[in-house]
């Protein structure tokens, strides 16, 4: 088949890779010179540990697919490094212990470690904490370089073409197939179109599908200069337990009652996630903002909070902060859905709204779409 994919982010690119692997021809359109949305404004984490029960199978499958992709495309920078959630209070320890005692704990690679055991796994963690929840199933990719690397691999197939700085203005379907008109006056003909609009829910996405059942979420993050030592796992703080549905339970209910978040963390709906990039710097975040219109500037107070928490867990000063940014992603309003898939016209699909799980679930979501469409 001739498949046209609109959107150059992780979801669109994962669908392109899946289609090429199944023997189809793909043309992919991206309105920017390079994807600039949530795909590159993230941690690059493949985050299995906190996924809800209904997400776990897809997250584990996606991790397998990332490992397979890395074997084909080493440039994606996939590392099966795992994560360490560092627990600073007895209430946080109780939440982690409850999660580590569940039947799916082995599938998630959970193990409770004391501080000495944490240090043995990740010698950079020399700070203050009572215990660590180790998850061996988590991983990371290099989000800013993965997509160009995947595209170069796809181009070598001879069945893939990428058009940057190309905005799809119209998608129509008739008995001859699907026809996409771009902002340069060109028309691309295909048998099937998959539109992956990311967080851009107006314009073409609204013209095709109306108001999508999605909401947008804004976050703030930052990047340090090289740490000067290896951070052998990603790290998270106890506040992350509040934001991942895999930790829901009586212990989390007790935590929420007994241990309010710090005022800044509560105001900005914060957790600490931190991962080391291949160049040695740390990507650190994040915040959650749900009420639009979003601010166009970034707030400094969350960065001070994140710096303080990270330094407490590392037991050392952070290197200088060299970059700060905000990003926006789209999320299904129905928390039971992994992603929204709609068919607004014959042979035209809109796939959007994986939430903050795009890098984690992208390859598995593309595989699911291909299976659903019989590709």
UniProtKB/TrEMBL annotation:
Transmembrane segments: none
InterPro entries noted in UniProt: FAD-dep_OxRdtase, FAD-dependent_OxRdtase_HpnW, FAD/NAD-bd_sf
Oxidoreductase is among the record's keywords: yes
Source organism: Rhodococcus kronopolitis
NCBIfam families: HpnW_proposed (TIGR03364)
Residue span, FAD dependent oxidoreductase domain: 2-371
Family that this chain belongs to: Belongs to the DadA oxidoreductase family.
The protein's name in its UniProt record: TIGR03364 family FAD-dependent oxidoreductase
Top-rank taxon: Bacteria
The entry's keywords: Flavoprotein, Oxidoreductase
Cofactor dependency: FAD
